[in-house]
Amino acid sequence: METIELLDLLKIKKVYGDIPSKVTGIQMDSRKVKQGNCFICVVGSNVDGHNFIEEAIRRGASLIVAEKQEVISGSACFVLVKNSVKVLSRFVQHFYCYPSSKLAIFGVTGTNGKTTVSHIIYNLLEANGRKSAASGTLGFRTNVITEPTQNTTSDILSSLNMMQRAIEQNCEAIVFETSSQGIINGRMWGIDLDIAIFTNLTHDHLDYHKTMEHYGYAKGLLFAQLGQDIAKEKFAVLNHDDPWAAAYSRMTPFETITYGLSEQADFYADQIEYRENGTVFLLHSPQDNYVVSTSFIGEFNVYNMLAAIAALYAYGLSVEDMLPYTADIQPAAGRMEKLSNSKGPAVYIDYSHTPDAIEKAINSLLPFKKKRLIVVIGSGNFRDRLKRPMMAEKASVADYVIITVNNPGKEPISGILKDFEKGMQHDRYVCIGDRAEAIRHAINLSTKDDIVLLTDKGHENTILIGSRYFPHSDKEIALEQVNLQF
User: Fold this and answer.
1) Which pLDDT score, from 0 to 100, does residue 204 have?
2) pLDDT value at residue 205
3) What is the pLDDT of residue 218?
């Protein structure tokens, strides 16, 4: 692309040096720079791209965009701007020819349920012959690609690359999980959403947002980012039963579609029958009433299914289009995932890492308890210490609780365990700092009639200890212990 074509997108800039005729690509990671690329210096939470300008030039960058005045060597052109992230979002959208305009874009936000709602939307689209893609905690996937992503919400350059690849595979839609940090840090800038979906808002990430009010309004930015061009058909899909839904509805001029268990919602469920291997409910919709069968358990998953159905109705699918496939969709990895074993206890792995999520996960299993419910909880890496005793309080409903860690990083393990202990409501618990040993202990003390719930880690296959990641899988450790013991 002509370099001047990109630079003309900016009104305020200072250019130093000779402008190269063309830009062969755009990068924010100096290790990925190739000859003729534009390197944009982004200040992240852990890494400052300005520190890697010289490396980018050595690798062939001919254009450097930065928001700090730097002295550089070599023949690269230097462009000083006010905000590198805004320039990055503008440049990559233009460079990739605005891929948002070629796809239906779903954005799912909320404290809990983002992964499951995205998972259901993706699978129902595919089942209806609508090729699609999804990006989030479980990675980036299409029907031919499955690869990891670094964050729940990827940086704008990675997201644009995903969209371009989805277009090349003739996808019609893409679903993005959108975290509050991702929204605040501009990772969704320039991505023109068609449907924004809100699941719920409960205590989490207050180490970052400080207050629930700030956290709530961070989520609300997603709905404001639907824009003001009402000539476009866009929708906000909101959980009617969550108090923040009304605020988010006021943040957008576009039509709001609600879901929930309240009869005032546009899509609501009643006559719910909770089963050990799934749920059946009566769906009331603007089209008609329908019996919906799913393989998901728990009330919170009724909400997740309703959110996905409402969002796809906004997209253009009829409820009748979706009904034949809802029962076939299996839970996403690490989301109330029941391990296959016929010998030992019923073992569930869930990503629940907030007080609300732990409470809902436990409540979904209690009706099927024969003997005991054993729960493993953990946290770490200086993440929102205030929620730890609250998580322990919710976990105290279980007959036995094992307190451990998850990605402790450089935070002292003893301090993590003590934070949790403050919230315990009984003395039927133990603290085990080694997570693998904590899982083995949970299986060891269980019987065939017990239920074991492993929370917080979900699908993850590494654990951060100190400054290094080590292989770790709750699922593999649990299955290995079950096979040894039973």
Assistant:
1) 63
2) 61
3) 80
pLDDT at 56: 94
Over the chain, what is the mean pLDDT? 92
Neighbours of 271 (CB within 10 A): 11
Instruction: Pull the structure tokens for residue 269.
Output: 């469920």
- Per-residue pLDDT, 297: 92
Q: CB-hemisphere CA count at 13 Å for 275?
A: 12
- Give the pLDDT score at 470: 94
Backbone angles phi, psi at 358, to 5 degrees: -65, -45
> And the tokens for 324?
């034949």
CA angle 273, 276, 280 (to 5 degrees): 30
Q: What is the pLDDT of residue 396?
A: 96
Which residues of the chain register pLDDT less than 50? Answer: none
Q: Smallest Cα–Cα separation from 127: which of 324, 332, 331, 291?
A: 324
Specify the pLDDT at position 45: 74
> Nearest-CA neighbor of 337 among 241, 223, 455?
455
Q: Which of 17, 15, 14, 3 is nearest to 74 (CA)?
A: 17
Give the per-residue pLDDT at 266.
98
